[in-house]
Amino acid sequence: MRVLAAMSGGVDSAVAAARAVDAGHDVVGVHLALSATPGTLRTGSRGCCSKEDAGDARRAADVLGIPFYVWDFADRFKEDVIDDFVASYAAGETPNPCLRCNEKIKFSALADRAVALGFDAVATGHYARLADGVLRRAVDADKDQSYVLAVLTAQQLSRAMFPVGDTPKPEIRAEAAARGLAVADKPDSHDICFIPSGDTRAFLGARIGIRPGAVVDADGRKLAEHEGVHGFTIGQRKGLGLPGPGPDGKPRYVTGIDPDSGEVRVGSAEELQVWTVRAERAIWTSGAAPDRAIDCVVQVRAHGGTAPAVAEATATGLTVRLREPLTGVARGQAAVLYRPDSAGDEVIGSGTIAGTESAAPLAEAR
């Protein structure tokens, strides 16, 4: 097959490209220039897609003996990922930009161009497994990225390759060193790639501006003022502008965000419990929505816990009724469904969380 290897400049994508070469594929490496000012996007382990990263990717391609190109996707990235991220926070949501980058850039814009140029598949360094159209968790549970890949359609998965998903990360680094790849010890990127400072609140504030509102308790009593709902997320405990814990001496958490009124509601940990999740934009990895309610395991954030549940397709997305409560469930994140009889490894589908309910409809079924 003709394979386009997306090379970020890190160790995972370099080894992924190397394994594609070893498998006998005709491989071409490409680095995506996602920033209009790439020189500013690498600070140690923060950021990505800098000139340094492009250089690292090119040197890895040279070692592998494959052609290498840099493609400019900065405008598309700004529109589909950065602008979407800012608008989502302004609407009181908590988006995951990696989800949108995979959905809109790597496996849409990039894959579409690859197919147009005659490539059969796009290989990336994501930690996930894919076989016969089935997306599964990676062998290395700590590095698993199936959650941020669950937004891919059956068609997108059909032209994707994840060569490193069956190997623990330490072995990937050892393999890179054995191959003579200089990125073997390069630090992993952390946080949000287009916010190298790590200060998400400042990044959003500069783009959204000050939109004053109130921090209130469950009864609507004003406790403090804030400069914008973009500074908060469901489950947040610190940075609330409150002098101390609640009247009961226990910590207070963000339990609700109203972007229209600007109110940020706080309450106890118990008030964070969610039993029903409603999601929009459902994507089913099989290509078709189930015609009945299905048992599943649901994950509601990239590094969050999971819970057994029953999911059902709806006219606008899907509804997930939990058998155990989850906390910190925020609008804008993805609800990713895994098949329970596969040890929770196999992805069934996903949807973008649009709302939650605290009632416990399946409490008696536990």
SSE blueprint:
Blueprint: E1 2-6, H1 11-22, E2 26-33, H2 51-64, E3 68-72, H3 74-90, H4 97-116, E4 121-123, E5 128-131, E6 134-137, H5 146-149, H6 154-158, E7 160-161, H7 169-178, H8 200-208, E8 213-216, E9 222-226, E10 253-258, E11 263-267, E12 274-284, E13 294-299, E14 306-313, E15 317-326, E16 334-339, E17 346-357
Parallel strand pairs: 1-2, 1-4, 2-3, 4-7, 8-11
Antiparallel strand pairs: 5-6, 8-9, 10-11, 12-15, 12-17, 13-14, 13-16, 14-15, 16-17
Query: Can you give the mean pLDDT?
Result: 92
What is the CATH third-level topology name of the largest domain?
Rossmann fold
Annotation field: number of helices: 8
The fourth-level CATH homologous superfamily of the largest domain is HUPs
Overall outline: globular
Taking all Cα atoms into account, the compactness measure Rg is: 21 Å
Number of strands: 17
End-to-end separation: 48 Å
Major β-sheet annotation: 6 strands, antiparallel, barrel
CATH architecture of the largest domain: 3-Layer(aba) Sandwich
Which stretches are poorly predicted, pLDDT < 50 over at least 5 residues? none
N-to-C series of helices and strands: EHEHEHHEEEHHEHHEEEEEEEEEE
CATH class of the largest domain: Alpha Beta
SSE-based structural type: alpha/beta
**What percent of the residues sit in helical stretches (DSSP H or I)?**
10-25%
Instruction: Classify the beta-strand content into a percent band.
Output: 25-35%
Count of individual domains: 3
Strand order of the largest sheet: 12-15-14-13-16-17
